[in-house]
Structures are given as structure tokens and as C-alpha cells.
Amino acid sequence: MLRLADHLLEQNGGLPLPKLLSVNIVRIVICLPSAITFSLLGRAATIQAVSDSYNGINLNGRRLFTRGGLAWVKLLQTSFLEFMIVVGLTGVLVASLATVPKILLACGIRSTGLGFWGVLGFLGIPFCVAFAHVMVVGNLAWVLNVLEGECYGFESLAKARSLMKGRKQTALGMTLLSNVGFRLVESLFEFRMNKGLSLWEGPMLVSMYSFVLILDTVMNVVFYYTCKPRDYVL
């Protein structure tokens, strides 16, 4: 499906941004069902397990999945809010890329590529910074959703932002490390798909991706306890 989207856009002479958006939209449609069910439930159970281990509580599978199920709706609301913020940022960028070249054309500058790449270069860095900030705050907000029952949605995002004051560079470094791991596994998957994926390689790549996801969750839970004041009560 991803190759089909690329092929259609190449035939229509699409710009790089619409092509990139089409690929991301297809990925979202494919991954959405599992992302809002198994992924959220698994992450909630992992957060609770790491928290119990951190506090010296014996692990109990039934307790983990019960707490994970109770936190699922909260995680879903926070994830949806985070997604809408990202969509808003992307909409501002896309609207600027669509309108500025036309404005330049009306002013007599006929180079559409110049307007496109100029706006992308001017807004690209602020967009990347804002996107990274949303990811960092969102990761910590997910931990708050599970470990603090009354905190979810916009409240959890605001509380996560307040909690991580003075430690944003550490959070950005953790997010960068996790994203590099995710991208490496995805690149390896795409490479093996082009070369021909063996039967045993599929489960191995899924295991690698799951390991990076668990490592990211563990880092965020430990980071939560590092940011939490000593006199703070759950």
C-alpha cells in the first residue's frame, strides 16, 4: 500500500510533502486499530510493572492487566489530545507551504520550489522543536495516566510539562534515543522487505521493536520518579 501511494504521487508529479503525508496517512490507517488497543494496554501494564518493581512491590499479572485496563480510557483520551495537537502543528505547516508559494507567485516570483523550500526551511526548525516537545510531554503524561488515577487528558499534559521543568534536555535525549532505535528497526524492516523477508525474520523484527518500546517505557517511568518531588504522594 505504501508503494502504491508513492507510485500514484510520482505519476501526478506531487511535491515531497504531499508524498510524505500520503505515506504517513496510510501508516496511521494500518496501525490505528492495534495502536489504540494492544499497544496502549501493553504500555499501561509495562508502566505499572516498572512502577511496582521500582517500589518493591511483587509483580502480579492479574493486577497489572486490571490496572492497565482501568487506565486504557485515560491513555486513549491523552493520546487523542496529543494527536490533535500534532495535527494542528502539521496543519499550520501545510497551510503555510500551500499559501506562501501562491503569494510569491502573485508578487511576481514564479519559482514555486523556492517558495516551498523557503517556507519549509523557515518553519521546519520550530515545527521539529514543537513536535519533539509534544512527544516528550506526551510520554511523561502517559505515565501519569497510569500511576495517578485522577490525572488524564489535558490535565496530564499540563502536569507533565510542569513536572519536567529543568529536565527537558534529559527528556529530549531519551526521546531522541528511543526514536533512533525505532527508526533503525523500521529501516531494517523496509530493507528486508525489499530484499525478501524470511519467515523467521518477521518475529525477530517484531521482538526488536517491542524491546525498544519496553526500554522507552522503562526510561519514562524512571524519569517520572526522578522528576517527582520527594514529598509528592500518589
TrEMBL record:
Lineage: Eukaryota, Viridiplantae, Streptophyta, Embryophyta, Tracheophyta
Sequence intervals crossing the membrane: 20-41, 80-104, 116-147, 205-225
Protein name: Uncharacterized protein
Keywords, in A-Z order: Membrane, Transmembrane, Transmembrane helix
Top-rank lineage group of the source organism: Eukaryota
